[in-house]
């Protein structure tokens, strides 16, 4: 599968967990009018995965302030998600997670997003940032043993918001509040000529 950047995100309709309750049908349309951080992780009840889910939970309000929803996805059943969600953090659980968790038991979502590790039957650690039109604007994929940065996901969301609101582009290592530039030759020259 080719790169999905700039393309409409593949739709889905699956079971999952929303605020601690199993829902029979969750679709991409459930997240209209919001930015969407859709992140995949390999399996429930593992080691790196709960650290990531808790890290996203710790910054959940930051995503919400930016009118963004966070959604997790793995190949586990909704019953596994439910059990993991009702397991205390001290025992490796994800108790307290508020954002939705999709159940990709058929592995169709992982395949459609191009991040299924076929030989292991699990998704790589992938993150997709979708704009309001369901276009994929950013993606990052890590190997199974490499946890990702929630701060980087927030930084990329801020950069997308800045571009959409002001038409300004964000240079390397840009953070909210830093200088942006016009996407023109003059903008580039001005950026490098100013302290």
Structure at a glance:
It contains six helices and nine strands, in the order E-E-E-H-H-E-H-E-H-E-E-E-E-H-H.
What's the total number of strands? Answer: 9
Radius of gyration: 18 Å
The helix count comes to: 6
Q: Gap between N and C termini, in Å?
A: 43 Å
Q: How is this fold's topology laid out?
A:
Elements: E1 13-18, E2 21-27, E3 35-40, H1 48-58, H2 60-65, E4 68-74, H3 78-85, E5 101-103, H4 108-112, E6 116-117, E7 122-123, E8 125-130, E9 136-142, H5 150-166, H6 185-193
Parallel strand pairs: 3-4, 4-5
Antiparallel strand pairs: 1-2, 1-5, 3-8, 6-7, 8-9
Q: If you had to describe this structure to a student in words, what would you say it looks like?
A:
With 195 residues, the protein is an alpha+beta fold. It has 2 domains: 136 residues, Glutaredoxin, CATH 3.40.30; 46 residues, no CATH class. The protein contains 6 helices and 9 strands. A hairpin with a 4-residue loop joins strand 6 and strand 7. The chain is elongated. It starts with 12 loop residues before the first strand and ends with a helix. The model has no long low-confidence stretch (mean pLDDT 93).
